[in-house]
Write a structure and sequence with these properties.
Length: 616
């Protein structure tokens, strides 16, 4: 079984500047509770709500060399029960785990087990439900058992059907090749195992895969000599039945030296991105590179470098994507955190544009942190896990860090207001209704105005936010704020701090029958700055804003950007506003004056910490 090995290096570290806006959610945390010896080579998977499971190899814990263990966490990073052993058969080595989870939280763990299939390593699995209870017995995945079958990777669809790929020695006639097998949600094999690679000379190993639409999937691997210069990265798309779609394709454009250790992630439409490590391409040792593809396997733009720090080696990258195609890449970097190997990452939007600078993931930097893996929720929250040396008191342990971008989504599709923290409905004048649905949804929020009582929904999810971004669809729907009484304005959105100070305000104006929108931001001295009013029609529009408070007293780097229908119409900069974070928000008819009448429509409210949300 081939392993990627990198030499030790002596470095003079240049520490990166702090990255503003990369929102870690909580502190770095230890995953394993059993700490004797070695716990490492972890993998993670997330369900549709952001709950996640981590699996890893643990030496000696099952009584016989390495075994596979796991632990479940909710979306807030709170452990759900104790760590648990995954493998039933404990003789010899059980290691190299992979894990995949469906939208409901059920998951499957795969690993390579030594001599269990009668000859070297074989591939084994265990299905587990969302509460951590094993479903059926552990099972063997490979039918060809001669020599070693190792390095499994697994993906699951929303209904818990799954595909596993692995590397198999001499099965394709020449060293290692890539093989796979499909299973239904009950763990029943769907057809025979199949070979993925068509080029069979030399090594094809280090497989990874990602799931597309309708059960289609893509497999990537590294192949020796196929691109004309040592290892290169190759891929193959397959449909839900395991039938190849098109031919095997080369991923890397730059072919000098080694390109290997690939990882792949796909979005809800089947578009995918592949990342790998490349020797010498960034000017010094290994660097991390990527290439985007559409669902048909057509490369989108050119391959691109992911790491900006290029001294020494940046290696063993992982990648995960949200449902919209935004993706995050993590890797190990020598010397960048000041002490041997550390974990770094970078976010990209669906077009491959970096979203901020690369960032350090690990807080504890003593000795080495390596072998990162990650998992994203459909909404873009993600967790990174890795092994850290001597941090748990005994050899390597498994550690993690959560990152949260999504703050809240409205839940109007459920037909009620239960997802919101509270609501002032004014005797039923505020309700969820199909008539308020916009942009293809089934239901939205309607605010019927027939008196001067404010009615609104409230979200208390924000936690002293220093950056707050929100988007909602809004239709004035003929609403009259009381023009005949010289009342022209109504607040439709407020973000406030814990002492009820208004931090951000969105105002609707109607004068002479013309509607317009204004944004306001509070300053430290209690005054405010306002955008101009920007005209909208009496029709649905999406309103988005991006607010950030200043980093400290006198820094004057706060801002408020207002977007209407995906166009930035105003940016207020140099704001002195470091004293007031966002702690809760309200949306609805918030400042009703005499003579106001009509019904306002709201839909698809979403708040995040940094990502552009845009229209649906």
């Amino acid at each position: 079984m081939r392993q990627l090995v990198f030499p030790a290096v002596v470095v003079l570290a240049v520490l990166p500047s702090t990255v503003r806006g990369q929102a870690s959610a909580g502190a770095e945390f230890q995953v394993n509770t059993y700490t004797t010896g070695y716990q490492g080579f972890s993998a993670a998977a997330s369900d549709g709500s952001g709950n996640f499971v981590v699996v890893w190899r643990s030496d000696g814990q099952d009584g016989s060399n390495p075994g596979v263990f796991g632990r479940r966490f909710n979306a807030s990073g709170v452990p759900q029960g104790s760590e648990f052993r995954v493998n039933t058969y404990t003789t010899g080595n059980q290691a190299g785990p992979g894990v995949a989870r469906d939208v409901n939280g059920n998951f499957v763990v795969v690993w390579n087990g030594n001599y269990q299939d009668g000859s070297g390593f074989g591939i084994f699995g265990q299905r587990i439900n969302a509460s951590g209870t094993a479903q059926g017995s552990e099972f063997r995945l490979n039918t060809y058992t001669t020599g070693n079958q190792s390095g499994p990777a697994v993906v699951s669809d929303a209904n818990a059907n799954f595909v596993v790929v692995w590397q198999s020695y001499l099965q394709d006639g020449s060293s290692y090749g890539i093989f796979g097998r499909r299973f239904n949600a009950g763990g029943v094999a769907q057809g025979s195992e199949f070979r993925v690679n068509t080029y069979t000379t030399g090594f094809q190993d280090f497989p990874a895969l990602a799931l597309g639409v309708s059960g289609n999937f893509v497999v990537v691997w590294e192949s020796l000599g196929e691109d004309g210069s040592v290892f290169g990265v190759f891929g193959q798309r397959l449909d839900a039945s395991g039938t190849p779609q098109g031919g095997q394709f080369r991923v890397n454009s730059y072919t000098t030296g080694n390109q290997g250790g690939p990882a792949v992630a796909s979005d809800a439409n089947g578009n995918f991105v592949v990342v790998w490590q490349s020797a010498g391409q960034d000017g010094d040792g290994y660097g991390v590179f990527g290439q985007r593809f559409d669902a048909s396997g057509v490369a989108q733009a050119s391959e691109f470098r992911i790491n900006s720090y290029t001294t020494n080696d940046q290696v063993l990258a992982g990648v995960s994507s949200d449902a919209h195609g935004n993706f995050v890449v993590v890797w190990g970097s020598y010397g960048e955190d000041g002490s041997n190997l550390g974990i770094f990452g970078r976010r990209f939007n669906a077009s491959g544009t970096p979203q901020g600078s690369e960032f350090r993931v690990n807080t504890y930097t003593t000795s080495g942190q390596k072998s990162p893996a990650l998992a994203s929720s459909p909404d873009g929250d993600f967790v990174v896990v890795w092994q850290g040396n001597n941090q748990d008191g005994s050899g390597y342990g498994v550690f993690g860090q959560r990152y949260g971008d999504l703050i809240f989504e409205d839940g109007f599709e459920s037909g009620d207001l239960t997802r919101w923290s509270s609501a002032a409905t004014d005797g039923g004048n505020l309700s969820v209704s199909g008539v308020a649905a916009m942009a293809g949804t089934a239901a939205g929020l309607q605010a019927i105005v027939n008196d001067t009582n404010a009615h609104y929904v409230e979200d208390d999810t924000p936690g002293s936010e220093s950056r707050y971004r929100a988007r909602f669809y809004f239709d004035p729907n003929g609403f009259d704020p009381g023009e005949a009484s010289s009342h022209f304005r109504v607040r439709i959105f407020l973000a406030q701090d814990s002492s009820n100070l208004r931090v951000i305000t969105i105002v609707l104006k109607r004068q002479g029958g013309q509607y317009s929108i204004e944004g306001r931001a509070r300053l430290n001295d209690g005054t405010r700055v306002d955008t101009a009013f920007f005209d909208i029609t009496n029709a649905p529009h999406f309103i988005e804003f991006d607010w950030q408070r200043a980093t400290g007293p006198g820094t004057l780097d706060g801002y408020l950007a207002l977007l209407i229908d995906n166009v930035t119409v105003s940016v207020l900069t140099s704001l002195d506003n470091d004293q007031t974070p966002v702690d809760f928000v309200r949306m609805g008819a918030l400042s009703i004056k005499t003579g106001a009448a009509g019904t306002l429509f709201f839909d698809q409210f979403e708040s995040r910490r940094q990502n552009l949300i845009g229209p649906e």
